[in-house]
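PROTEIN DESIGN WORKSHEET
SECTION A - STRUCTURE
LENGTH: 689
TOKENS:
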């Protein structure tokens, strides 16, 4: 590999560019582009996707001289920041982040606070004057490195932390009856926790936690590249039909800290509302937290607008970044940011996932704002966006009293639309039940990337924690799947397979309805209907009419389908299959089945005479709906096999309805059997017979 393997960025200059997504991944290309346009981005470097590609094609080995390139760029980052990895006085800490050319939220790994060890943690404490913060950063690093790089189960570390929180903080918190948060754990408790976490690490790996930052770095790079082929990432690419990528890039970035105290925070925001498309600044924020806290949904965040009240200067800076990014990319952006001791840093930007309703509004609004052309707007609307306009909503005719009496809980409306189904509590069950033809709602405390298969299978997703930018919300929004998060009143018991609010208990298999537009959860299955199209849809369709060269006719067989097709813009009927008219009601089906089963011409003619008035009425309705537009009719050419029942029980029922002996009906149906109805006994073959 003769090509450059590592691209540096920092101090307003980057070796890469935003157009290099295939090589630098979305994250790396975004960091380079944001650096070049002058945004406050921490310095670092990106390892290209070609390294990942080489690694998997060469028996998990790195390219020649790769280690030297990484070493050279670490030295360059140390010189720029004036800090060194592992320095006991003033340590450089970095994050190691994944990033493919296509967005795969939460599917691959990230490790934060790399460079901390037993000596450098004291240097960080001294330099920041905040020992609790330094110990908390070390705690996070041990857990992330142990679980991500070394495969130790995360819950093994969490059990130690939970024990400290429950045992050591109960006395302090009993007075205010509040929940036990990570931020409630004090310096002394963290001092006790860290050796316990290192013991968990040693118990499950057989080694001491690494103190050498270079060993930490290479372990982390290996973990991120290894996560490209993790089951959850492979499943996500299969579900999303993502193919042809080289692999993940790896970005090594100077750490900035949102958990240095009440003057620090971290958040995820969108330059427009990703649900409605409204031109408002939208997002979630956690004070005194690191980035994974927001995405993981382990704490319920505050709204972005609250930042204006808490830190007006940082909020103003962020709104300026918002405007600059939209002008530059001419697209709605998803932004990750951190505020360290009052100073704003932008960690990532990418084209934001949005609901289908929002996709239409954003495209039309950006044309009005002269950011893009009408043609650009049309090219942004995908087949998934069109399909998403047909997602169901709760029938507005349902009385308010009925809704009120069946309200179970209320959470954060993460993805609009509505869904009804049976409650399941695991991704595995969601997949299995869906495969059996059941409609399910996946209920979790929070979702993780391991849940994506079940999330995709479910009709809707409900979580007890998280905000509008949590893993559940981001993934569901990308699929246009109804989702409610941050439903804090829910008490979920995975062992008992129940979810309760107060004394009301819902068990696995019980039916619920979730309304992703309002955040409401109902304890029964409610009637759902299709929504009306937004005004932006009509505007875009008008622009499409101005651009297109093809004309579109519909494929319908009934008056009401013809009316619907006209509403959707059809310019005639390309195929009206007359035999499909007889699927419509039981009376029609019986008449045509009698005609098919008949063994003499008189019975057959009587059956056809019975069908004639239905056909006449249908054609009048179709022609009236088309109002002079062309209609192409295919004369009756039924695949006879499709019109008759296949099971013995159904054949007996048909014999009874036709007042015929069962053996006569069965014999006739057996003679009509077609191995391939597309090449069956009809059309020209029937004429030859």
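SECTION B - SEQUENCE
RESIDUE ASSIGNMENT:
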């Amino acid at each position: 590999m003769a090509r450059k393997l590592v691209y540096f960025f920092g101090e307003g200059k980057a070796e890469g560019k935003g157009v290099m997504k295939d090589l630098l991944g979305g994250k790396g290309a975004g960091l380079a582009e944001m650096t070049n346009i002058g945004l406050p981005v921490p310095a670092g470097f990106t390892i290209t996707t070609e390294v990942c590609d080489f690694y998997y094609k060469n028996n998990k080995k790195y390219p020649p001289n790769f280690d030297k390139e990484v070493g050279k760029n670490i030295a360059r980052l140390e010189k720029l920041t004036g800090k060194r990895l592992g320095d006991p006085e003033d340590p450089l800490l970095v994050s190691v982040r994944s990033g493919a050319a296509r967005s795969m939220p939460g599917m691959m790994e990230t490790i934060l606070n790399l460079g901390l060890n037993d000596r450098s943690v004291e240097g960080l404490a001294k330099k920041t004057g905040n020992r609790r913060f330094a110990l908390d950063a070390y705690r996070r690093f041990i857990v992330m490195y142990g679980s991500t790089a070394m495969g130790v189960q995360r819950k093994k570390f969490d059990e130690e932390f939970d024990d400290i929180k429950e045992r050591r903080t109960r006395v302090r918190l009993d007075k205010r009856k509040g929940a036990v948060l990570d931020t409630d754990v004090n310096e002394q408790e963290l001092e006790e926790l860290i050796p316990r976490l290192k013991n968990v690490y040693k118990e499950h790996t057989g080694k001491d936690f690494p103190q050498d930052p270079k060993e930490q770095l290479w372990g982390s790079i290996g973990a991120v590249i290894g996560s490209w082929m993790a089951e959850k990432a492979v499943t996500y690419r299969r579900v999303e039909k993502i193919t042809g990528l080289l692999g993940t890039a790896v970005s090594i970035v100077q750490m900035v800290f949102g958990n240095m105290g009440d003057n620090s925070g971290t958040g995820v925001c969108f330059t427009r509302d990703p649900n409605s498309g409204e031109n408002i600044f939208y997002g979630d924020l956690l004070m005194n937290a690191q980035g994974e806290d927001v995405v993981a949904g382990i704490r319920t965040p505050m709204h972005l607008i609250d930042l204006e009240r808490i830190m007006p200067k940082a909020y103003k800076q962020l709104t300026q970044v918002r405007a600059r990014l939209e002008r530059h990319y001419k697209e709605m952006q998803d932004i990750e940011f951190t505020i360290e001791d009052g100073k704003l840093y932008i960690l990532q930007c990418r084209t934001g996932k949005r609901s289908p309703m929002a996709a239409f509004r954003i495209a039309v609004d950006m044309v009005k704002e002269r950011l893009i052309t009408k043609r650009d707007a049309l090219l942004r609307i995908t087949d998934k966006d069109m399909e998403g306009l047909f997602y169901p909503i709760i029938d507005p005719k349902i009385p308010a009293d009925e809704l009120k009496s069946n309200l179970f809980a209320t959470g954060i409306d993460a993805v609009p639309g509505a869904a009804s189904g049976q409650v399941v509590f695991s991704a595995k069950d969601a997949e299995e039940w869906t495969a059996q033809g059941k409609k399910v709602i996946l209920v979790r405390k929070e979702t993780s990337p391991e849940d994506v298969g079940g999330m995709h299978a479910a009709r809707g997703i409900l979580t007890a924690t998280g905000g509008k930018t949590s893993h559940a919300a981001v993934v569901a929004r990308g699929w246009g799947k109804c989702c409610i998060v941050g439903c804090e009143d829910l008490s979920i018991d995975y062992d008992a397979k129940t979810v309760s609010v107060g004394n009301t208990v819902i068990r696995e298999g019980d039916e619920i309805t979730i309304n992703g537009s309002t955040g409401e959860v109902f304890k029964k299955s409610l009637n759902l209907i299709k929504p009306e199209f937004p005004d932006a849809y009509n505007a875009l369709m008008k622009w499409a009419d101005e651009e297109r060269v093809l004309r579109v006719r519909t494929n319908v067989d009934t008056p009401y389908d013809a009316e619907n097709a006209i509403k959707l813009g059809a310019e005639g009927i390309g195929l009206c299959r007359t035999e499909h008219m007889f699927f419509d009601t039981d009376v029609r089906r019986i008449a045509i089945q009698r005609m098919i089963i008949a063994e003499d011409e008189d019975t057959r003619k009587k059956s056809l005479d019975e069908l004639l008035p239905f056909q006449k009425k249908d054609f009048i309705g179709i022609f009236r709906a088309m109002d002079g537009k062309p209609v192409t009719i295919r004369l009756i050419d039924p695949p006879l096999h499709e019109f008759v029942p296949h099971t013995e029980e159904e054949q007996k029922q048909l014999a009874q309805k036709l007042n015929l002996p069962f053996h006569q009906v069965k014999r006739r149906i057996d003679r009509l059997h077609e191995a391939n109805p597309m090449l069956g006994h009809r059309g020209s073959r029937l004429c030859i017979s």
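SECTION C - NOTES
The chain has a mean pLDDT of 88.
The chain is about 45% helix and 20% strand.
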